[in-house]
Amino acid sequence: xxxxxxxxxxxxxxxxxxxxxxxxxxxxxxxxxxxxxxxxxxxxxxxxxxxxxxxxxxxxxxxxxxxxxxxxxxxxxxxxxxxxxxxxxxxxxxxxxxxxxxxxxxxxxxxxxxxxxxxxxxxxxxxxxxxxxxxxxxxxxxxxxxxxxxxxxxxxxxxxxxxxxxxxxxxxxxxxxxxxxxxxxxxxxxxxxxxxxxxxxxxxxxxxxxxxxxxxxxxxxxxxxxxxxxxxxxxxxxxxxxxxxxxxxxxxxxxxxxxxxxxxxxxxxxxxxxxxxxxxxxxxxxxxxxxxxxxxxxxxxxxxxxxxxxxxxxxxxxxxxxxxxxxxxxxxxxxxxxxxxxxxxxxxxxxxxxxxxxxxxxxxxxxxxxxxxxxxxxxxxxxxxxxxxxxxxx
Length: 394
Ligand code: HEM
Known about the structure:
Elements: H1 10-22, E1 78-86, H2 92-108, E2 123-128, H3 130-136, E3 163-169, H4 174-186, E4 190-199, E5 203-207, E6 210-213, H5 229-236, E7 248-257, H6 259-263, H7 267-274, H8 311-314, H9 317-320, E8 326-327, E9 330-332, E10 338-345, H10 348-361, E11 368-378, H11 390-393
Antiparallel strand pairs: 1-3, 1-4, 2-3, 2-11, 5-6, 7-10, 7-11, 8-10, 9-10
Bound molecules: protoporphyrin IX containing FE.
């Protein structure tokens, strides 16, 4: 290498400093820190680097419910959903118990496979697919497969699956490391079927102590849901039978979105698709983002303020006649821009009846193609005395 390559020129130094200022990365680093002799004020304050990113607070992995459903709130920025099948002769109980132990070590930061990375707000949430649930009891919640819906283009390997491992973390680097540790633990007992990573944008406060991110269509996503403890008891957590109490049912569907066609609409047309304002999340019927749409509100000439085919009308729990679902979706860019729709509810009908109601005439659906689909029983929480999955497969 040429000697000059080792010594950055003053010009190069200034370029780097300029780039740091432009990127807003110079915590405490003002033009005062420019090297002496530069044209700016030439005091000799030391150049300080950017501050370290604080490690987010830990989320308890043990307890009545698994983490990664209601906690943390708001959800972490990064997700990987791994869906796998179990070999025919695999003992389900021991595998789940081992995965639970591994999750305990990973979230506590004691598993050497973490390679010293701080786990921060890492959560790992495990669910089992209908085939395994049926083996434990044909009438248990979670024993039913999802039906087919319109606008699906799903390869056989991206439909269903025996095991869901949902890994979420504020630090994107943790996700593949944690996935590798869990896959290592399971070894050849599982065969990966499909996986999807996703991320969430910055959180926007929407009132009532809640915050939700925008999705790739620019709209705040995740406002309505069972957010109070009473709503979660009623609509989110399974209350029985005892072997599933404290669990819930997950629906995971990857939807590609036609961004160019949506972006070609005017803002008013985009807002009519959802029934909410793009900038604020406020329903087209007024009020606040958190207050929810007033579906009966009309213009003086008798048109609904929230259009008849608006997504928030077609998906509204009272219009469908179901409970609330907790949506915890992540945006995707691979294999295509879209949404990994993730919802949790204690009755699968909450999802199926809602999508059936949307299928008839939801303006949003025309922009979507679903390319992966599965449902899982999210196992009840676990601790040292009650291994993961012991209630069902112990
Ligand atoms: C790519 C597809 C989808 C996108 C981009 C999307 C986005 C949104 C947005 C922005 C809202 C309004 C704000 C909020 O309450 O979070 C919303 C509401 C909602 N969505 Fe979706 N959604 C999608 C698919 C679905 C599907 C498949 C379902 C369920 C079958 C669903 C169920 C709901 C429900 C229940 C609401 C609340 C409606 C209300 O009560 O106001 N969404 N969605």
